[in-house]
Amino acid sequence: MQPTFSEQTPATRLQAVRETIRRLENRYRRTPGSVRLLAVSKKKSAEEIIDAASAGQRDFGESYLQEALKKIAALKDQDLCWHFVGPIQKNKTRQIAAHFSWVHGIERVIVAERLSTQRPDHLPPLQVCLQVNIDRELSKSGLQYEQVPDIASALQELPNLKLRGLMAIPRRTSDTIHRRLRFAQLRALLEQLNQSGFGLDTLSMGMSGDLEDAVAEGATIVRIGTAIFGARTAG
Ligand SMILES: *Cc1c(COP(=O)(O)O)cnc(C)c1O
Question: Which pLDDT value is given to residue 3?
């Protein structure tokens, strides 16, 4: 029997999201298990994260540094893998380098240089993605396509970072064809980089509202918040 709405917890919703991903992998002929689920827990409590962790979830994404640091400290015995998915100010790099395993939204070489310099010696390289402005919106963060090869080359020189791939947050639209086209363009850019010698394996794309289009077009990490933890309060 399906749990009724009031019985839904992060653990039960997580299970449903996992099943959806398996079904989509099958429908779009993706290798089973090739889409990694990142649970975006920003604005959610340590208790809600523990509930998701009890269902086997290990990867969690956070956007707000101070809030994240409190949860990471509170959950240090849980063996979780923390991903920073928010915008990065220069003065936040030291803490991010010390407390996270992944950073998804790199768009400036200066930030990457600081993260590499500040990465503590006892930790493995920080796993990073370059954020691409796939809709070419003036107001939106992320690199233009043309900028990506040079910045990717610069990042490869940094000893304590490992460039894994590309990340994007598409414009909100109900136009599925438009979204799939944008995701396909991000995948094409990754393939182009790999043809010129980069060994990249990560496409971080797809959120609660566009999961299917992202899996269809090759996402390897989907960043899911609302579908696991419920709506976030504004502010
Ligand atoms: C909040 C956030 C998500 C999760 O979005 P949902 O729509 O709640 O799934 C994914 N990626 C980034 C970068 C985010 O900031």
Answer: 54
Which pLDDT does position 171 carry in this prediction?
86
Residue 189 in tokens? 């850019």
Asked if 55 and 19 count as a contact pair (C-beta separation under 8 A), the reply is: no
Cα–Cα dist 91/35, whole Å = 33
Q: Are 45 and 62 in contact (CB under 8 A)?
A: no
Whole-model pTM: value is: 0.96
Q: Give residue 136's pLDDT.
A: 81
From the CB of 225, is ligand 1 less than 6 Å away?
yes
**Among 94, 181, 98, which residue's Cα sits nearest to residue 134?**
181
The answer, yes or no, to whether any atom of ligand 1 lies below 6 A from the CB of 224, is yes
pLDDT in tens, 76-128: 999 999 999 999 999 999 999 999 999 999 999 999 999 999 999 999 999 99
The token duo for 51 is 């509930």
Q: For a substitution probing ligand 1, which of 20, 40, 171 has the most ligand atoms within 8 Å of its CB?
A: 40
Instruction: Round to whole Å and give the CA distance between 195 and 127.
Output: 21
Q: What does the pLDDT look like over 149-176, one tens digit per residue?
A: 999 999 999 999 999 999 999 888 889 9
Query: How far apart, in whole angstroms, are the C-alpha atoms of residue 162 and residue 181?
Result: 28
**CB-count exposure of residue 119 (10 Å: 0-12, 13-18, 19+):** buried
Question: Ligand 1 pocket, 125 CB below 6 A?
Answer: no
Query: Whose CA is closest to atom 5 on ligand 1?
Result: 225
